[in-house]
Design brief:
The chain has about 350 residues and is an alpha/beta fold. It has two domains: about 130 residues, FAD/NAD(P)-binding domain; about 120 residues, FAD/NAD(P)-binding domain. The chain contains nine helices and 23 strands. A six-stranded mixed beta sheet has the order 5-2-1-9-20-19, with no helix packed on it. Strands 13-12-11-17 form a four-stranded parallel beta sheet. Helix 1 packs parallel to helix 8. About 40% of the residues are buried. The chain binds flavin-adenine dinucleotide.
Length: about 350
């Protein structure tokens, strides 16, 4: 039996397995390795941290299929020169490997940032952030560093959950989400103004202490600080003997294979792609990997050129009632955008059941 080993059951590998299974010959199996016994819906972790969703709502089961084996274990080394993966409790050999171990916070060398900030990158960290927020007393201050999608979502969700707290959102840019139309930025900023979230533009956090952050050398007293200011591939991927591109992501050929290792693919946040990392990109890339691998397994010639990964746009929430979207070069704001986001999540859960 030939073995396709998938490391990490995130958005990338869930989509890969879904698309690969119908094309999988009977002499192949898929072995999925994840440290958690469920697929975490990372795009919803902000709600777990803010306390508006229970953990059960932000995770779901892995696929059940006679051709899929699941191992719950932590990957500690990816030894592509010897075709094996080392986990905390075992060692696994593979015929083909799909590395989809996701990302972790990048603290950019800011002193104190790793030690003194909360995270929403993993279920475990989001749970810990929820606990820390739960311990806050009225009029305490929460700082959120980074006003990208996840920073905006945790700030707004937290405001909805706790109107007794001060919230400061440190934004590196001149305006929120500067890569999108001004109308979208203005809408999000207005929501924050109306809901008493203090957005601090042109921020550059240079130091974090247990009860302060230093923004351009101006100190702000905080009770907790949540870091959403950058990500990097999982540490075990950063130790692979491969070439790394922008953001420390693994450089791949057009078939998403590690150059020189035709049987090793990297999917999602660990992969250097032309788009910024997102669940949407991970899924689009995973679909291409399934196409490529099924061609190889069936002995078909690969396409001379792979198409671009199609992007739909962005969808973000501002609490449970409002949201924003930029889809097909159109800005959508308010309740409709929020309903779209809920609809996408509902469809995702349905599609993976
Ligand atoms: C709060 C927030 C909101 C977001 N919102 C959006 C959004 O609206 N739209 C969007 O497109 N993207 C969004 N993203 C980004 C998106 O979640 C990621 O880009 C996406 O999860 C990447 O998918 P992946 O398959 O690469 O990794 P992940 O989905 O992170 O999966 C990685 C998997 O690997 C497992 N794993 C990690 N290390 C190990 C190890 N050593 N051993 C075993 N298993 C391991 C983990 O348990 C996990 O199951 C958001 C992110 C955050 C944090």
């Amino acid at each position: 039996m030939k073995n396709i080993v998938c490391l990490g059951g995130g958005y990338g590998n869930m989509r890969f397995i879904q698309r690969m299974l119908p094309k999988l010959p009977s002499d192949y199996k898929i072995t999925l390795v994840d440290k958690n016994p469920y697929h975490g819906l990372k795009t919803e972790y902000y709600a777990l941290a803010a306390g508006t969703k229970s953990e059960k709502k932000v995770r779901m089961g892995f696929p059940e299929d006679t051709q899929v084996d699941i191992i719950y274990d932590t990957v500690t080394e990816i030894d592509i020169d010897n075709g094996r993966v080392i986990t905390e409790n075992n060692a696994l050999e593979y015929d083909k490997l799909v590395v989809g171990l996701g990302c972790e916070d990048k603290h950019h060398g800011v002193p104190g940032a790793k030690a003194h900030t909360c995270s929403i990158q993993t279920l475990r960290e989001s749970r810990a952030t929820f606990e820390a927020i739960g311990d806050l007393t009225p009029n305490d201050t929460v700082g959120i560093v980074g006003a990208g999608l996840s920073g905006i979502e945790i700030a707004s969700e937290l405001r909805e959950a706790r109107n007794d707290l001060y919230i400061k959102l440190f934004d590196r840019g001149e305006r929120i989400l500067p890569m999108y139309p001004v109308r979208l930025s203005d809408y999000v900023k207005r929501w924050f103004d109306e809901n008493n979230v203090d957005v601090i533009p042109n921020s550059n956090i240079v130091k974090v202490e247990s009860d302060h952050v230093y923004n351009n050398n101006e100190s702000h007293a905080l009770d907790i600080c949540i870091w959403t200011a950058g990500v990097q591939p999982a540490e075990v991927v950063r130790r692979m003997p491969v070439e790394f591109g922008p953001g420390g992501r693994v450089v791949l050929n057009q078939y998403h294979q590690v150059p020189g290792y035709q049987n090793v693919y990297v999917v999602g946040d660990c992969a250097a792609l032309q788009h910024a990392p997102s669940a949407q990109v991970a899924e689009g890339q995973a679909e291409q990997i399934a196409e490529v691998m099924s061609d190889i397994v069936a002995g078909r010639e690969l396409p001379g050129e792979m198409p671009d990964i199609k992007m739909q746009g962005i969808l973000g929430s501002l609490g449970s009632k409002e949201g924003f979207a930029y889809l097909k070069e159109r800005t959508v704001t308010g309740r409709i955008a929020r309903m779209l986001k809920s609809g996408v999540l509902w469809m995702y859960k349905l599609g993976n059941n």
